[in-house]
Design goal:
Ferritin; 2 domains; 0% strand
Length: 175
């Protein structure tokens, strides 16, 4: 009789574990998804700061325009990243990475010279190429379907930014 009760209790626990495990799994990001969310959030913060700087400091009209687009779009993208990170219990940094800060400082050192536009555009080209590679890696290898879907949704926005940046680079080089 005791053995029957133990088996029944074990069966009940196994059933309860089976019910709660998928929902707990769904809320937890795969080990490779949290770093993606953190990196994308920091990238958004860096792009917003870069865009604000361009709007204020650029001498080329297209750099100012691209800067405004980056601010608008990366703010929108970051709202989604923050909501998803919150849902998945991923803690995000309140600021860009140290490397991003260093890069921004280097570009800022060019304010007041014609080199600012070129430095800003070069930095933005590199940043957006790296972001596209990060997004592509996440969509190919990410573990959480929602994170992968967010990455897929962000890709065309980031790709469009890169097109705008490259077109602006061509205009600045011609002038």
């Amino acid at each position: 009789m005791i053995a029957v009760r133990r088996i029944a209790a074990a069966t009940m626990l196994a059933a309860l574990a089976g019910i709660s495990a998928p929902s707990a799994y769904a809320a937890a990001p795969a080990t490779d998804d949290a770093p993606f969310l953190k990196a994308i959030h920091q990238g958004n913060l860096a792009e917003i700061a870069a865009g604000l700087s361009a709007r204020k400091n650029a001498t080329a009209a297209c750099v100012k325009t691209v800067g405004a687009v980056l601010v608008r779009d990366h703010r929108k993208l970051d709202v989604d990243v923050k909501a998803l990170a919150s849902k998945l219990h991923v803690t995000l940094s309140p600021s860009p990475s140290a490397a991003q800060e260093k890069t921004m400082t280097a570009v800022q050192s060019q304010v007041g010279s014609s080199a600012y536009n070129t430095a800003w555009l070069t930095t933005e080209t590199t940043s957006h190429e790296e972001t596209l590679a990060l997004i592509d890696r996440e969509t190919a290898t990410g573990g959480n379907a929602e994170v992968k879907a967010a990455a897929r949704a962000a890709r065309p926005v980031v790709a469009k930014h890169l097109e705008l940046i490259r077109a602006c680079e061509a205009r600045v080089k011609r002038s």
